[in-house]
Amino acid sequence: MLRLFEQGLCRRRPGELVQRGRWESQANFLVAQITNTIGLSDVWLFPMLMKDDGGGAFLLPYMIAMTVVGIPLTTMVLALGQFTSNGPATCWEFCPLFQGVGFGILVYSVLLSTYSNVILSWALFYFFASFRSPLPWADCSKEWATDYCRDYLLPSNASACIASGWAAEADGACYNTNSTPKRITALWDVSEAERHGIKRVIPAREFLMRGVLGVDKGPHDLANLGTLDWRLVLCLCLNYVLIYLALVKGLRSLVKVEYVTLTYAVIAITVLLVRASDMDGASEGVTAYMALDVNKLLTPRVWSDAVTFTLYTLSLSTGSLLCLASYNVFHADLVMYAAIMAAANIAISLMAGLVVFSSVGFVARYLDVPMSEVSKSGWSLIFEAQPYALLLQPNARLWSGVFFLLIFLLGCSTEVIRIQTVIESLKDLNPSLRFHRQLVRFFSCVVYFLLSLPMVTQGGVRIVKVLNYHLFSFNVFLLFLAQLAAVVWLYGVRHFLVDVELMVGTHVMVYLPWRWVKYYLWACWLVVCPVIMVLGLIASTVRLEKLDGSTDGEFAVGLLSAIATVLPVPIVGIYNMWKRKGSCLEKLRSVVKPTDRWGPATFKMRKVWLNRYSGTLTADTVSDFGSSIFSRDSLKDDFHYVTAHMTTHHPIGTHRSFFTATCPTIQVKESPPPLSQPEAGLVAAAESTGVDLPVGSPLSTDLEERESCVDVSVTPPPGTLGSPNEMGSDKTPGGSSLQGVAD
Predict the structure, then answer these.
(1) Which of 22, 5, 34 has its CA nearest to residue 259?
(2) Does residue 515 sit in helix, strand or coil?
(3) Which H or E element spans position 508?
(4) Of these four, 154, 158, 463, 637, which has the most CB atoms within 10 Å of its CB?
(5) HEC string of 273-326?
(6) Hey, what domains does the chain have and what are their CATH numbers?
(7) DSSP label at residue 97
(8) Nearest Cα residue to 246 out of 236, 257, 237
């Protein structure tokens, strides 16, 4: 039998029950959030930022950005999801004018996932190629290598070139002039050749660009992408099949994937780090990775990179944090979870950087070239430098398989949650889709697959580069500014802090008093974060330019993709105004105030929340709603603190009649209210079937806090909440009346 809190019945609007998943434990929630924030960016982007932005000195702006931007914004996002039990598209009842921010986040998430899954298909291709002997990038192959491949273009001297019948030209290279066109055959002066841009290329780079991505199949642009590569199509299809299997059972299958990913990631990174530390030249790579360059701290770009990477690596702009928090229990210490997620992200990023740059130092020494030649970009670290370093080790196939399986699992676990966020948002917008969960999941994966198909063509890598370069730009800062404006200025930072306090109680992180933490959050939300977002918006707009080697058409596509993520903000805001009645001023006033549907989703916590704001909160009421996390004494202390320091005015109304008029199922009184008609109907239905409910726990209590196993399979009487007359169907959203399925 399943627990009732797994069923997760939440109230989104009067007369409607919505079935959502619930985490079976807080450990599941934390593991899912950590694996969501740990992704490919920690393996390839963070090490490059460390090397280019001052080495170990970059840790200072990074830690500061994580403290004043990362943790506060993570707390805000988690609070929105946990408080409302809704996804990014439907949690905006506190300010309908900015509901478009949620839709913009979903558009951004879809675009990000389309090209990220293509990169995962590359990782799958390399993983399967690791079973070949020898490894395909071990030497230059005539199928894909050029004359510049390292095995073909060997150092020589001018006399040897002339003796072989080749021409030794002034650029330091020898050419076979008998072929048409003439072909480069050797380098008689390596230094002179490098000054003329002639360099030897390692086989791993040739294999990636020509053997895998097929960039040599002719000139390609967005108007002529070439043909599909059937190998990458199969890998992409397998990638989405695995994602669908991870989502097929909802949270129960999703959390298993996250546990496997986190366990394997920690073990694999640790083993690879120990192995890399024994490589020749590893110390030189670590030195380049961690070398202190304090002068870099004086450049604005370093601080901008620290903020940008913080926002990107914590997945704050994809809505996935908010979606996962919507499955959480109401009384979870979200401040502690935000701090743990930040700490875990920093630790994994540092360890991954040590692994990567130990390999870079080894390859640079082996090839006798500067490390800058080995680590040119983020992708080169994953698909060029690291595979080539593992190639030169004993049991190269084993280590290559371990590494690329790590890359795939890190990216896949993140993509599973991103796609789950979009699916759950669709079901929040249209609850009838909950009748067809598997179809929604299947067709969502099919749509993602079709959107990714153009990127596995011979010219598809150009689309991947353009989206990767332009998608995280001014649009992300605009979305965060809009979110801050809605929460902090329109709804009110004081009101939002009160809502957070209702969830976390008097202490966060076990012993830290909430009254101290709230001033830290108040300063960050009200002052620090808006200022940083404005500066980031200005910097990203000023630095807006074409990607090197891209055309004007590709720049236009990248710019339009960024604009598409912010267009829903004005469109949805105007639509919400148009739906309301009255003059333009009255419509504007109505969309900047919370609606009657704003508040906790469950019956019990909504009652306590309204009582707290209406001035009718009593110590007995506060102690009655507590979960196992809080003791009765601490909740009574919280009540005395609240009544002494909190105003009785609430943003959606100031009179008790307002609450009784807009929420007729909740009666605001000094004494505990009786069961409402819908609640009484559900209790009567359960009692009529002989179901034993926990002693002292009526059905009107918070269902997410039940821990007794109850198998409920009844149909509520006509006229009650969840009945056919109320829901417009002969079944509740589970397929049967109260079927407990953690979705």
Answers:
(1) 34
(2) helix
(3) strand 507-508
(4) 463
(5) HHHHCCCCCHHHHHHHHHCCCHHHHHCHHHHHHHHHHHHHHCCCCCCHHHHHHH
(6) 4-133+228-572 (1.20.1740), 154-199 (no CATH), 603-670 (no CATH)
(7) G
(8) 257
d(CA 507, CA 634): 9
The model's pLDDT over 43-102, given as tens digits with 9 standing for 90+, comes to: 888 888 888 888 888 899 999 999 999 999 999 999 999 999 999 999 999 999 999 999
In Å, the largest CA–CA distance within the chain is: 104
Cβ atoms of 410 and 40 closer than 8 Å? yes
CB 544 within 8 A of CB 473: yes
Question: What one-character DSSP code corresponds to residue 175?
Answer: E
Where do the H-state alpha helices sit in 334-385? Answer: 334-367, 371-374, 378-380
Say if residues 71 and 306 touch (Cβ distance below 8 Å).
Answer: no
- Whether the model pTM is above 0.70: yes
Alpha helices by DSSP H, listed for 491-551, are 493-504, 514-523, 529-542
Residue 131 has pLDDT above 70, yes or no: yes
Structure tokens at 141: 């192959």
- AA letter at 187: L
Q: How many residues does the chain have?
A: 743
CA distance 53 to 725: 63
Burial of 133 (0-12, 13-18, 19+ CB in 10 A): exposed
104-108, 200-204, 545-549, 726-730: least confidently modelled range: 726-730
Helices (H), 456-513: 460-470, 474-484, 493-504
- Residues 6 or more apart in contact with residue 84 via CB below 8 angstroms: 90, 91, 93, 326, 598, 599, 600, 601
